[in-house]
Design goal:
binds magnesium ion; Rossmann fold; 6 strands; 166 residues; 14% strand; single chain
Length: 166
């Protein structure tokens, strides 16, 4: 099981067009909870600006969320004008592959952006996509994701130590 992301950023707005072009990424599959919105379902202003920059540079965007709350994803989808799929069951490959077909890109040209190793990163890695881990927008979290964080922090710290050695 591949648990390491290709790269870690503090937030989506740190992912630059240059970085994506350098890595031949033409499209991004985006997580919602704690990646695009915080627990109050607010989209940060810099995230909105970032989405506009991505669109202007022809980076295709698609939202893929595990949530069963369709309304929540739809609100984000409408606000940012990005298509979506929910009930994705990440890390299952199914949702990623469906979106890949829609995006009409090779897996290696797709970036998977999310705040969770156990859903976003492992799922993206299984599909041979370029995985980008972002720090969760807010530390306050749902009880059902909180238990995974200590493990996530171990992976992140090891990853950062590896990067510093290089
Ligand atoms: Mg998330």
């Amino acid at each position: 099981m591949k648990i390491y992301p290709k790269v870690i950023f503090n937030s989506v707005s740190e992912i630059s067009v240059e970085f994506l072009k350098d890595n031949k990424i033409n499209a991004l599959i985006l997580d919602v909870d704690n990646t695009l919105i915080n627990i109050e379902r607010i989209i940060p202003e810099n995230t909105k600006k970032w989405v506009e920059i991505m669109k202007k540079n022809n980076i295709k965007l698609y939202i893929l969320s595990n949530t069963n709350n369709k309304q929540k994803v739809e609100d984000v989808s409408n606000a940012l004008d990005i298509p979506y799929r929910n009930l994705a069951k990440k890390p299952s490959k199914k949702g990623f592959i469906k979106v890949q077909e829609i995006l009409q890109e090779k897996p290696e040209n797709i970036g998977v952006v999310g705040d969770q190793i156990f859903t976003d990163v492992i799922g993206g890695n299984k599909c041979n996509m370029f995985t980008i881990l972002v720090e969760p927008i807010q530390k306050k979290e749902y009880w059902y994701t909180r238990w995974k964080r200590p493990l996530e922090n171990i992976v992140k710290n090891k990853f950062k130590a590896k990067q510093n050695k290089q």
